[in-house]
Amino acid sequence: MNNDTLIPYIGVVTDIRQDTPDVKTFRVVSPEGGKVFEHMPGQCAMLSIPGVGEAMFSITSSPTNKEFMEFSIKKCGCLTTWLHAMDVGQQITIRGPYGNAFPVETDLKGKDLLFIAGGIGLAPLRSVINYVRDNRANYGDVQVIYGSRSMDDLVDYKEIIDEWMADAGIQVNLTIDNPQEGWDGHVGFVPNYVKELNPSTSKTVLVCGPPIMIKFTLAGLKELGFTETQVYTTMELRMKCGVGKCGRCNIGNKYVCKDGPVFRFDQLGELPDEY
Amino acid sequence: MLKISLDKLDKLFEAISASQTLYIPTDREDGAAEYKKYESGMKLSNNLNTLRSAKDFFFPQTENLVDFKMEGKNIEVIDVREESEDFVIFGVRACDARSFTVLDKVFLTEPVDSYYKNRRDHGTVVTMACTRPAETCFCGTFGIDAAAPEGDAACYSDGENLFIEAHNEKGQKFIDSVAALLEEGDTAKLDAVREKTREILKKLPLANLTTDNFGGDKLNEYFNSEKWGELSQSCLGCGTCTFVCPTCQCYDIKDFNTGHGIKRFRCWDSCMYSDFTKMAHGNPRLTQLERFRQRFMHKLVYFPANNNGEFGCVGCGRCLSKCPISMNIVKVMKALEVK
Predict the structure, then answer these.
(1) How many Å from the N-terminal Cα to the C-terminal Cα in chain A?
(2) What is the predicted pLDDT for the residue at B339?
(3) 3-state class of A21 per DSSP?
(4) Alpha carbons A242 and B253: distance in angstroms, whole number
């Protein structure tokens, strides 16, 4: 019988990084070494601990990384609590890749890019940011605006400081919600910071974060003169199969697992407001 | 057309079951019909339809997808799939036969569901034309002719004889396997019976129900309709409609620890249940209104949008007779309809 996408592969967790008090980043390789499968930025994978649960997570590493995949996961439910408690060397099951990707090889090519992320919302965008950094000549200006509740809640802070901020090819603007000792950067919510920075409307925007952040960010972008056709986001709903058959992640006739998770706002606007 | 005398049906069933597993609708003690594996002496039900739909044959209520063995930090994945045996489902009504083509659109679309396909490949569907459609029937609304059902092969009764014809290679193979029992018969009486059935179909209370005002392009007309509140108000969220529905195919995946390992199961689920879309951070379908709306929007708008206009309902009428609060798709269509 042919392989079935519902039958998972094995992945080995080879590194666990405590990113924030409630976010860990897990490095996963196949038991034979190397990646379990290839993906494009924005795609997702179903991770599971048999007997505990299975859920969809965005692949936060860039496909240009040829050695491993990474997943930044916030502790917020049964499975994620289990994942946070595991040690290096633990095997998990993994299947995918699922969903579409950000159009890095088509619509985004040659464009000035603006990434806007809030909290754990950086996870899916990190894949694109690093893909763009590794294929720098294919894209125009790159700016990242990223905010979190506090300094401690900035995911991938070390990579941001050590690599992104040191990279002359991209501009990084960080913000945190409230003042904090040891922080001399910007303080304030992401949507307001975006308005303050007043980015050029020539940019194509990729935004991900809590729903309320996305909502106000989009409103702010519109005030600045951006149109919905130049703003992309990535969605998340409950999923079981990952291939548009189990029937629960639909928004109207679109399945987030299969037709998404990446949507452009004008496409999302045609769908019912049920997410 | 080839035929067999109705009083020789036992012989036909014996012949089929000699070479493969045969399922026929048969009456339970309480009078309701259900599909059972044929055993000698079992009688074909005279009921119009089975209590449960025939979807179980291809999409069972629960099935084991894969097993896992956990040892320390290691996991072993065990593929439990086996090639299905050949089987025949005999006596499937036109509505249920069409439901298989609806399910095919979900499970046989890439990536193909190998569990479903395995059973579909090995199952032969032999349908039975209806002669006494009921007041709850509205298969005609979806272009189904109860007097001429689809399926790999179809049977028609004229009260004395059972006529049988193949619709495809699989059906022909089935007929060939029992050819010794069949003989050419005159269909004059059968033609009269079918004519009578079509007369009944025309006079059914739901005969004029149409899908003209539904379809993939009707999202905006119906999603924000004020009618959903009233329609869903009494819905208990019991899921009976999805359980008896031949086209409902939403499923859940759950693990079960046997003590010797983990078994992963697929089970029917229902969009009518409150935890269907519940996530750690909230639920996009918070009240029964959203869940109720999802079920009907899926059948009448979303499914046709994704499947060239085909609807996710076959008019079998089971939800009409089984809903504890007497709500059903017909009432929803009539209440919503914007002409």
Answers:
(1) 37
(2) 65
(3) coil
(4) 11
Element (H, E) at A231: strand A231-234
The model's confidence at residue A134, banded by pLDDT at 50, 70 and 90, is very high
**What three-state secondary structure class fits A30?**
coil
Interface mutation vs chain B, best among A5, A52, A83, A91, most B CBs within 10 Å = A91
Does the pTM of the predicted model rise above 0.90? Answer: yes
CB contact under 8 A, B73 and A89: yes
Cα-Cα-Cα-Cα dihedral sign, residues A252, A7, B254, B51: positive
Buried b (16+ CB within 10 A) or exposed e, B130-153: bbebeebbbbbbbebbbbbbbbbb
Kindly state whether A240 is in contact with chain B, defined as any CB-CB distance less than 8 angstroms: yes
Alpha carbon B246 to chain centroid, angstroms: 3
- Alpha-carbon distance of A19 to B36, in angstroms, equals 57
Query: Do residue A238 and residue B306 have CB atoms under 8 angstroms apart?
Result: no
Place of tokens 């299905």: B84
The minimal CB distance from B77 to the residues A77, A93, A244 is found for A93
Distance of CA B29 to the CA centre of its chain: 23
Of the residues B220, B260, B302, the best mutation for testing chain A's interface (the one with the most A CB atoms within 10 Å of its CB) is B302
Q: Is A29 on the interface with B (CB under 8 A)?
A: no
SS3 content of chain B, % helix, strand, coil (to 5): 35, 20, 45
For residue A214 the two structure tokens come to 């996305």
* Stretch (H or E) spanning A122: helix A122-134
A53–B305: do the CB atoms touch at under 8 Å?
no
Would the CA dihedral through B332, B333, B335, B337 be positive or negative? positive
Judge: A245–B251 Cβ closer than 8 Å, yes or no. yes
Structure tokens at B121: 């490949």
Residues 6+ apart with CB under 8 A from B311: B142, B211, B214, B299, B300, B303, B304
Interface contact flag, B279 A237, Cβ < 8 Å: yes
Structure tokens at A1: 């019988």
Phi, psi of B112 (to 5 degrees): -60, 135
pLDDT along chain B (339 residues), means of 10: 95 95 97 96 94 97 97 97 97 98 97 97 97 96 96 96 97 96 94 95 95 92 94 96 97 95 97 93 92 97 97 97 95 87
Structure tokens at B72: 């320390």
